[in-house]
Structure formats: structure tokens, C-alpha cells
Specification:
- In chain A, about 55% of the residues lie in helices and about 20% in strands.
- The relative contact order of chain A is 0.19.
- Chain A is elongated.
- In chain A, the strands form 2 sheets. In chain A, strands 1, 3, 4, 5, 6, 7, 8, 9, 11 and 12 form a 10-stranded mixed beta sheet that branches.
- In chain A, α2 runs antiparallel to α10 and α2 packs antiparallel against α13.
- By secondary structure, chain A is α+β, with helices and mostly antiparallel strands.
- The relative contact order of chain B is 0.19.
- In chain B, about 35% of the residues lie in helices and about 25% in strands.
- The radius of gyration of chain B is 17 Å and the shape is globular.
- The two termini of chain B are about 30 Å apart.
- Chain B contains 7 helices and 9 strands; from the N terminus they run βββαβαβαααβαβαββ.
- Chain B is α/β, with parallel strands linked by helices.
- In chain B, the strands form 2 sheets. A 6-stranded mixed beta sheet of chain B has the order 5-6-7-3-8-9.
- Classes of the chains: A alpha+beta, B alpha/beta.
Chain lengths: ~375, ~230
């Protein structure tokens, strides 16, 4: 390697510890951003899967901030079923309860014909027994695992005691760590008689989706129907989660950027004389700035690589951790990795702006005057 | 002023008139109304005691620094303009300093490549030039050694090679032997004289040592910021 590239690497090698600290700053920012965004996207994806199983639309209460507070009367579910283009309607009541040692367990009240039940792999028990007996619940595989119960045993969920009717496995962490109840049992348990939180709808002809949405608006003023994609974009909880994830990530990057700025400033201040010599040898102001930017970019690249390694490693640990009950199913997307890498580079280069400007302004005569 | 000098070249490679320079917002006058002209091929000594202004004058007439007042022309370039100053440094002038000012973590070869990189020389041309110059100064066996592993004399020889990398028309040497012992200083000075003669360069040397001043074609004595022709 010759020329400017060599000078960049020589300077990084010369101040290894300083460079390492800077790389660590960037890598922690990258890892934090990757972890937060991947976990949030994973969580959103899981929730979205619950809603979109075998359906095209979600119908829920208009202007509700959270689906847990949404109320869709069962009479209106019946009317939805009667609409001409509707193939299936699957109402669901969602609730959260506590269990011994587990502060949060999600309960899904669904009908026997619900596609989520139909698609699951039954590890024990029988799908045919769903809804047949009172006070009988069906556990996701992880829920059964952390509650340490099997079919036929009693399980305490909130203030109620239920018999385990079956254990089913799904690919969705929320469902797998949750409790399925017959819808009428859930309505009774959560004191929401004749109410569902939402209804997922599958249409016979998806080209008439707009007409269906308009019909829902016309016939049920308190409800709204959204396509799965629309729901993902407009559901306020998802938006809050995404914005929070990016905000936290960018804040951690700003800290990393300050680290780079500090490192580059120190780097420039400690070799004013050397930069002056480069200028004397014919380096332009731009070439000197490229040196500083190049050094920052190398630090950023190293930081991004280390950050990805830390982040992916951390996510793997979180995915595998039994304590998290499968609620973390991180989604690592290439576009997110790309965006994080670009943000890290921009942050590092921005951190090098002032040091590069300072370096390019060094006057050789002044810097070399005091030999 | 044209960026490209007359191909036949001016008779004077350096022309400076009415140069004034002060520090600390004018409170410390360093150069006071100096006129100086230097011909192609000359070896000129700026001679004087410490603080007489010889280094500052060297900086002003080499384009390293700009005067408060006065005009300077170097090979027809106006060093007050950044673009022309840059072109001068890249292609037409070389510098040797008292403290070699080499980059200690780089090898001899890498240090010599710096001016070549700035000038955009090809790798092969630069490598050939490095080979030639280091052979001339007896540093061929030190090419891959880092500067911190060299002796004082070897460092200054490397510094001279660096100044000559881009075949400059002008070499400015600011007390090039000031940090060396007597014998090494003499050897380095001999080497400088021999190399610049071979290269056909004009040399302007700032020195306080009479023995080196006397070996130049001409000397300008600096006293309290004023030039006295000897």
C-alpha cells in the first residue's frame, strides 16, 4: 500500500488504543441500533403474523390506541360474515394476565375453526377437543415449557384455574408463549361478554378490498377495516415502537460520532507538524482533509463490522434465552443493516468535519517555525 | 500572472521586493523591507545569527509563508495564490529542514514517496527515483527501515532525497546541518552540494555557519530583519 492509504493506516496503528476506543464507541452504537430495531421489527412481525394468518384485512374499533382496548361486538362479526365477498371471519379476543413467576402471558380467545389453531402443530392433546369442555385452555409449546405443565394438569392463569387441554406449537413467538382459550371462555374470563378485540377477514375476491372497506365504514361507523400492510403502517403502537427504536439508535450513534470527533481532533492536534510537512511536500488542503476523513471512515468500517458482530451475537443469545420465552424473534434485514452502516459512516464523517477543516487550515510556516 | 512560466525561464528564479513580515500583530518586526533576487543555478546563503530573520526570509521567498507587504515571484509563479503555491510545492521546489521532519513511523521508501504521491507520480517512476537517490546517498540498504531506526546523518540524507524526489528547480534548506555533529554536518553539506549540482537545481540555504556560507556562490547577510549583500 502506498500514498494516502498508507498514511491513514500508519496513523491508526500509531494510536491503537485511541482508535480502539473510537471503534468501540461506533460498534456499541451499531450493536444497540441493530438490536433494538431487529427486536422491534421481530415483535411487530410476530404480532402482524397473528393478525394476518389466513386473512387479508383486520377489522377493529375505530380510533383505538391499542388493540387490547378494541371492542368488536359479536353481532357485528356475524354481520361481517354475511357480507357477500367475505370468505371467512375469525374473531379474536386478546388479553394479558399474570401467572406464577410470569408477569405477562398473552391470552388468545379464538373459535374452534380459527386458522391459528388449524395451522398449529399439536404436540399433545387434540384440536377436536378445543371448545368442548369448560375451563379448558390450550398452551403454546413455550408457555407449557415455562409453566411446567402437561395435558390434563391444572394451571393457574391470573385468578383462574384451568385444565390444560392441549399443547400446540406455532412458529410465532407470541403465540408459542401464549394461552389459547375458546372465545366464549375468554369473553367470560375477561368480562367482555359478546365482544372480540378484532376480527380478521379473508375475502373471496381481493380485488374488491376497497369496496369491502367502504362497506364496513358505511355499515359499522364504530369500526374500521385495514389491509394488513395498511395496518402495519398506521397502527400507532407499531409507529411508536419504530420511531423509538430509530431514535434510541440514532442517539447512540451521536455518542459514537462524538467519540470519532474527539479521536480525530486528538489525531490532528498531535500531528500538526506532520501535516505541515505533508503540505510542504505538496499535499493540497483537500488531500489533507481526505487523510482525516479516510481515517474516520476506516474507524467507522471497523466499528460497523464489530457492531454487527456484537449485535448479531447478542440477538442470537436473546433468541435462544429461555427467560425471554420466545418473545424475541429478531428480524435482521439487509436493508436495515445497510441503513445502519450508512448512518455509522455518515456519523463518523460528520465527526471528522471539524478536524478535517482544522487540518486543512494548518499553515506550514507557522507549524514548522519552532524547530 | 500566468500559471505556466515562460518556457525559456526568467533570468531570476526568485524576485522579491519590499518584503515585510512581523509577528504578534506587528509588535515583533522580523523582516524589514528586504529585496532579493536569485539567479538560476546559484547557490545562495542566507547567513546570520539566530533571530536575524534568515529562516523567515527563506519561508517568504519559498512560498511557505506570505509577507505582510511586498511581492514575491518564484519561477514566475505568485506564491500568494494557493493554487500557484501548491503547484510550486508539488513540482518545482524541495525543502530540507534542520530537524529532518520525516514521518517516523514510515520507512525511508514511504517517506520518499510522499512528494511523489502529492505530485501524482506513477508508482514505477517513483520507485525508480527512490532507487536512484538512495543509491546516491548510500541508503539503498535502509529503504525498508523506519525513520526512528536511522542515525541523525541518515535521517538528514533521507530528508535531502525527499527534497529532490520531484526533480525541483529550487531547493530551500533551512539550517540543514544544524542538528548534526561537525563531521556529519560537513558530509551532509557535501552531499547536498553534490546532488543539487547533479540535478541542476538552484539552492537557497539558511545557515549560521560561516564555513558553509563561504562555499556558496553568494551570501546575503541577515541583520535585524534586513538583508546585506556580502
Amino acid at each position: 500500500m502506498t500514498g494516502i492509504g498508507k498514511l491513514i493506516f500508519v496513523n491508526i496503528r500509531r494510536h491503537r488504543v485511541r482508535a480502539l476506543i473510537s471503534v468501540a464507541g461506533i460498534s456499541f452504537g451499531v450493536a444497540a441500533m441493530l438490536t433494538i430495531i431487529s427486536v422491534v421489527l421481530g415483535a411487530i412481525g410476530m404480532f402482524q403474523n397473528i393478525l394476518s394468518t389466513e386473512s387479508n384485512l383486520v377489522v377493529f374499533e375505530r380510533n383505538v390506541s391499542d388493540l387490547f382496548f378494541s371492542s368488536v361486538p359479536m353481532d357485528e362479526v356475524g354481520e361481517l360474515r354475511a357480507l357477500p365477498n367475505v370468505e371467512t371471519v375469525a374473531p379474536m379476543l386478546v388479553g394479558i394476565v399474570q401467572s406464577a413467576d410470569h408477569p405477562i402471558i398473552t391470552c388468545f380467545g379464538v373459535e374452534e375453526s380459527d386458522p391459528r389453531i388449524a395451522k398449529a402443530k399439536w404436540l399433545s392433546g387434540d384440536r377436536a377437543s378445543f371448545s368442548k369442555e369448560p375451563k379448558r385452555v390450550f398452551l403454546g409449546a413455550r408457555a407449557a415449557d415455562f409453566m411446567k405443565v402437561s395435558v390434563g394438569e391444572k394451571v393457574q392463569i391470573g385468578k383462574g384455574e384451568f385444565e390444560v387441554g392441549g399443547i400446540l406449537q406455532t412458529k410465532n413467538g407470541f403465540e408459542d408463549g401464549g394461552v389459547f382459550m375458546p372465545l366464549d371462555l375468554a369473553q367470560d374470563y375477561f368480562h367482555r361478554e359478546n365482544i372480540a378485540s378484532l376480527a380478521t377477514v379473508k375475502l373471496k375476491d381481493t380485488s374488491a378490498t376497497a369496496a369491502f372497506k367502504a362497506e364496513v365504514t358505511r355499515r359499522f361507523p364504530s369500526l374500521m377495516a385495514l389491509e394488513d400492510k395498511e395496518f402495519n403502517q398506521s397502527y400507532s403502537q407499531f409507529r411508536i415502537l419504530k420511531v423509538t427504536a430509530w431514535a434510541v439508535g440514532i442517539c447512540s450513534f451521536l455518542l459514537g460520532g462524538l467519540g470519532v470527533a474527539n479521536t480525530m481532533l486528538m489525531s490532528v492536534f498531535s500531528r500538526v507538524r506532520e501535516i505541515a510537512v505533508l503540505r510542504v511536500c505538496g499535499f493540497s488542503k483537500w488531500q489533507v482533509a481526505v487523510l482525516v476523513f479516510g481515517e474516520a471512515a476506516v474507524l467507522a468500517v471497523l466499528g460497523v463490522a464489530a457492531g454487527f458482530a456484537i449485535g448479531v451475537g447478542g440477538l442470537e443469545v436473546m433468541n435462544a434465552a429461555p427467560q425471554l420465552q420466545g418473545y424475541v424473534q429478531a428480524v435482521i434485514r439487509l436493508d436495515i443493516l445497510g441503513a445502519i452502516a450508512v448512518i455509522a459512516l455518515i456519523t463518523a464523517v460528520a465527526g471528522a468535519l471539524y478536524p478535517a477543516w482544522f487540518a486543512s487550515k494548518i499553515q506550514p510556516a507557522e507549524a514548522l517555525r519552532f524547530e | 500572472m500566468s500559471m505556466v512560466p515562460d518556457p525559456s525561464g526568467p533570468e531570476w528564479v526568485i524576485e522579491a521586493h519590499g518584503l515585510w513580515k512581523s509577528y504578534d500583530r506587528g509588535r515583533i518586526p522580523v523582516i524589514q523591507g528586504v529585496d532579493i533576487q536569485i539567479q538560476r543555478g546559484e547557490m545562495v546563503a542566507l547567513w546570520g545569527s539566530s533571530g536575524s530573520g534568515k529562516s523567515t526570509l527563506l519561508h517568504l521567498i519559498s512560498g511557505l509563508d506570505v509577507p505582510d507587504r511586498g511581492t514575491v515571484s518564484i519561477l514566475g509563479y505568485n506564491p500568494l495564490r494557493e493554487k500557484e503555491r501548491l503547484r510550486l510545492r508539488r513540482h518545482h521546489v524541495g525543502f530540507v529542514f534542520q530537524l529532518h521532519n520525516l514521518i517516523p513511523d514510515l520507512t525511508v521508501e514511504e517517506n520518499l514517496n510522499i512528494p511523489a504521491t502529492a505530485a501524482g507520480q506513477s508508482r514505477s517512476a517513483a520507485a525508480e527515483r527512490v532507487r536512484l537517490l538512495t543509491a546516491e546517498v548510500g541508503l539503498s540498504h535502509r529503504l525498508n527501515h523506519r525513520i526512528q531506526d536511522l542515525s541523525g546523518g541518515e535521517r538528514q540524507r533521507t530528508s535531502i532525497c525527499r527534497a529532490l524526489m520531484n526533480k525541483p528547480a529550487l531547493v530551500f534548506a533551512d539550517e540543514p546541518t544544524g542538528s548534526l555533529d561537525e563531521d556529519t554536518a560537513a558530509a551532509v553539506f557535501d552531499l547536498l552540494c553534490r546532488l543539487v549540482a547533479q540535478e541542476g537545481a538552484t539552492v537557497i540555504l539558511a545557515t549560521h555557519e560561516r564555513r558553509f556560507m563561504e562555499r556558496c556562490h553568494r551570501a546575503v547577510r541577515m541583520q535585524h530583519g534586513r538583508a546585506v549583500q556580502l
